[in-house]
Amino acid sequence: MAAEGWIWLWRWGWGRRCPGRPGLPGPGPGPTTPLLLLLFLGPVAADITDGNSEHLKREHSLIKPYQGVGSSSMPLWDFQGSTILTSQYVRLTPDERSKEGSIWNHQPCFLKDWEMHVHFKVHGTGKKNLHGDGIALWYTRDRLVPGPVFGSKDNFHGLAIFLDTYPNDETTERVFPYISVMVNNGSLSYDHSKDGRWTELAGCTADFRNREHDTFLAVRYSRGRLTVMTDLEDKNEWKNCIDITGVRLPTGYYFGASAGTGDLSDNHDIISMKLFQLMVEHTPDEENIDWTKIEPSVNFLKSPKDNVDDPTGNFRSGPLTGWRVFLLLLCALLGIIVCAVVGAVVFQKRQERNKRFY
């Protein structure tokens, strides 16, 4: 098991290459990932695709030239609202107020393990928080349903990744633009006034707006592990943003992207969306599951509502106040006492043993 863990660590971290972008180092475990945990994971995740065409699923990919987009004969992608199609990009919204647009894959995805790479661009004339609102990437049961959540419906079923550029909550300490993740079974509503704080699973600050170079985002889902990575610095390397486990997503849902503007606006462009199949072995029990019947969910030890902001723009668990601080101090004190007692006993035994030789 340990050897298999080392192989997995090498492959998923430093020893692999990014799918769809040859020569780009892959997104390895972040600096806070415990090494011992990785060693005992064993062959949980498979080697990531390196961008070979055999792993690229063209029926779920949006690639230039945009053939089969919005056509009446066997379309691969449909779009609605303010979305316009050019030879270089799909513009979900122009830099104008009160616009909503989206683009959705026509084919449901039945892959259990996948990775989506999104080449996008958010830009406009607005300065210093005078722009909005952002892009949402979707893997959901319903498609082409307009709504208030970045141009798409609320109370959705599935996965959403929000690339939010405007802080609606004036009391927040997080730094925008901000990327967050939400999984919904239709029972939760996205609260724009709080920037989705109460339903967010995890998030990070990501400065992707008005960049002069290409900006990319990767979403990887495999064996219940959801990872979001960014390449925003024009350094040809991924940076970890979100990494959570215990995520359950069904097959048969649709990929899409949407954007919305309000009193403030931006150009929200999608240049490409490339879906790669991850070659992962599943147990016989997992293979016998009807993955289309799985309810979107996340196994959390705590509620996402326990999340609070910190000045870095990242999320952490609830503040260490009151009884939490008391318990930490008590554990530290007990540890010191135990060490002192053990040390004293060992010292006394040595003293008694030395006296016997005199």
Describe the structure.
The chain has four helices and 18 strands. The protein has 358 residues and is of the alpha+beta class. Strands 1-4-14-6-7-8-9 form a seven-stranded antiparallel beta sheet, with no helix packed on it. A seven-stranded antiparallel beta sheet has the order 2-3-15-5-10-11-12, with no helix packed on it. The chain is globular and about 95 Å long. It starts with a helix and ends with a helix. The N terminus is likely disordered.
As a whole number of angstroms, the C-alpha radius of gyration is: 24 Å
- Strand-residue fraction? 25-35%
Distance between the termini: 53 Å
Mean pLDDT equals 81
- Helical proportion, percent range: 10-25%
Please tell me what the overall shape is.
globular
Unreliable runs: 1-20, 22-49, 309-321
Pattern of helices and strands: HHEEEEEEEEEEEEEEEHEEEH
Judged by helices, strands and strand pairing, the structural class is alpha+beta
Spatially, the strands of the biggest sheet line up as 1-4-14-6-7-8-9
- SS elements, strand count: 18
Please count the helical segments: 4
Largest sheet: number of strands, sense, barrel closure: 7 strands, antiparallel
Membrane topology: Single-pass type I membrane protein; Single-pass membrane protein
Domain L-type lectin-like: 54-278
Transmembrane segments: 325-347
Organism: Equus asinus
